[in-house]
């Protein structure tokens, strides 16, 4: 029974990150706030959204999101406000434009370069293997002498 309670408490923990005093009275605004919170990174935990994190900074960010929504901001305006304040690192899924385009493109470009370099290496090894099979008469005679034939 204790194990069951422990397992259930571990599963419920992320849901408990949003405290009752943070929840908005308007269910539609609360739903928008929860959706936005799932896309924002906790700057303390780093791999959790602010919706899942129990850190004080995550709570502050959740409250900030809700304040902006109550003030009448759209979802994009709220995200822009938070990004302007904390930088693009706060987004769990960074944008693919601007300077980030270099970061997004670097992985595939390096992979293609590695495949090209590997193909060139294999091709050069095949060429060198083909040319080494052609021995002169003198080399063949020396080889037979070494082999004892």
From TrEMBL:
User: What CDD domains does this protein map onto?
Assistant: CcmH_N
What keywords sit in the KW lines?
Cytochrome c-type biogenesis, Heme, Iron, Membrane, Metal-binding, Signal, Transmembrane, Transmembrane helix
Q: Which residues form the signal peptide?
A: 1-17
**Domain of life of the source:** Bacteria
Q: Name one GO cellular component term.
A: plasma membrane
The membrane spanning regions, by residue number, are: 101-122
Q: Name one GO molecular function term.
A: metal ion binding
What positions belong to coiled-coil segments? none
- Record carries keyword Transmembrane helix: yes
One Pfam match: CcmH
Q: CcmH/CycL/Ccl2/NrfF N-terminal domain: which residues?
A: 6-147
Tell me the GO BP annotations in alphabetical order.
cytochrome complex assembly
**The family this protein is said to belong to:** Belongs to the CcmH/CycL/Ccl2/NrfF family.
Q: What does this protein do?
A: Possible subunit of a heme lyase.
What's the protein called, per UniProt? Cytochrome c-type biogenesis protein
């Amino acid at each position: 029974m204790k194990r069951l309670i422990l397992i259930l408490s571990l599963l419920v923990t992320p849901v408990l990150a949003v405290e009752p005093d943070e929840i908005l009275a308007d269910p539609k605004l609360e739903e928008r706030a929860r959706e936005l919170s799932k896309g924002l990174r906790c700057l303390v935990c780093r791999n959790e959204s602010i919706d899942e994190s129990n850190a004080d900074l995550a709570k502050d960010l959740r409250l900030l999101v809700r304040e902006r929504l109550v003030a009448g901001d759209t979802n994009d305006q709220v995200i822009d406000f938070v990004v302007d304040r904390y930088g693009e690192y706060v987004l769990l899924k960074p944008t693919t434009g601007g300077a980030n385009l270099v970061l997004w493109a670097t992985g595939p470009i390096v992979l293609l370069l590695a495949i090209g370099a590997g193909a060139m290496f294999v091709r050069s090894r095949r060429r060198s293997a083909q040319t080494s099979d052609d021995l002169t008469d003198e080399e063949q005679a020396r080889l037979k002498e070494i082999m004892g034939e």
